[in-house]
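Allow me, if you will, to draw on your knowledge of protein folds for a short while. Thank you for your consideration; the sequence and its tokens are set out here:
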Amino acid sequence: MKITFIKPNMGLVNGRPYLDRGRMEPLTFAVLAGLLPADIDCVLFDDRYERIPYGDATDLVCINVEIYTARRSYEIADRYRRHGVKVALGGYHVSMIPQEAAEHADCLLIGDAEEVFPQMVSDLAAGCLKPLYNGHFPPKLEGLRTRWDIFAGKSYLPLRLTQFSRGCPNHCRFCATGSIYQRTHCCRPAEEVVSELAEQPQNFVFFVDDNIVAQPDAAKELFRRLIPLKKRWIGQASLSFTEDDELMDLMKRSGCAGLVVGFESTSPENLRQMGKNCNMHLDSYAPVIEKIRDIGFQLWAAFLVGCDADDVSSIKKTVQWAIDQKFCFAAFNILSPYPNTPIYQEMLEQGRLLYDKWWLDERYHFGDCVFKPARMTPDELTDICFWARRRFNHPVSIMKRAFDFKTNAKDLWSIATYFAYNPLFRRELFKKHGMVLGYHHK
């Protein structure tokens, strides 16, 4: 039996498929492949940079659907199904809005796959594939075997992706993770994660966890076990880790080089609208940022712009504040309501959405505002968000932020990483802006 995994592209730039130079390994497929018996042939095709061989024989096509790849995912699925190939769709977007995805699939996998994906493949072999498989949370994360070999010969950024935990104890009103997992969080056994990483030649690791420090005691066990490996790692974390000195020390000793942190906004009113409770208790970001700088972690700060307290002036101030903090990287994203999140339902009821399904609408382009902001027009929000990205990633800003000798320039590796990735992300932001989603348009 042969299973074909496909990582979809987002869409077209100037009429040509978007070539993502910043692409990372699609870890989901390595985990799924590891759930299957060794005699099942698993292949991966990454639509972000290589052609999909639709003519190759396969028993099942599995596509992981995200909101920005939904349109392209459905195009790929429909083409395979027209040729009689069965298609399974899964991923966050499918879990959030399964009734939409069902129109393009022979079966859907909702939620976490560990306990149901092998059964789905077994049912396919027996000729009794069901239209729906519901995963369970928390899933059983013991005994996983990540099949990184499916990335052999592929072209990705030089870092190894892995996962220690899943879910998040927070429930931010804009976040799909919070809506799916409902404040729940679970972990893999730390010894299994470390054992896998010990076998890998890559010394730079990215933990894709939504919040790697959500269970501090479990995280501490992981970090203690990581210390002997002498690898460098980055991950995503809430600012709560700054309240635990032992945790911070273990993070540093285990090789933490930097963290992706959702600051989201400097406005308390915006944080309340988002339900960003893990940030709302802070009187100021200044002490926690200084604590992070003192220990030497580089920061990738994430911001959402367009909440009801935002206007053009406040967004400009936020960008300048981010530059002044000398963040290694920063992402400025328009608040884009995801289906079936509290913010989406609220804006739908208020009549503020500009499109019924913006992620499928031909009028939508990447970077567009998709709702009616409180203190700006949609076009003003689109323009100021693109300005924010350009301003933070301007060459002058890149140089100004580089020479923070506690973080970005604390050693040769850090400064080399800084100057390797900042120009890359600057090029990609210009390429992506205005992209149409999917390949086929009227």
Notes: The two ends are 37 Å apart (CA to CA). DSSP finds 17 helices and 17 strands in the chain. The longest strand covers residues 256-264. The mean pLDDT is 94.
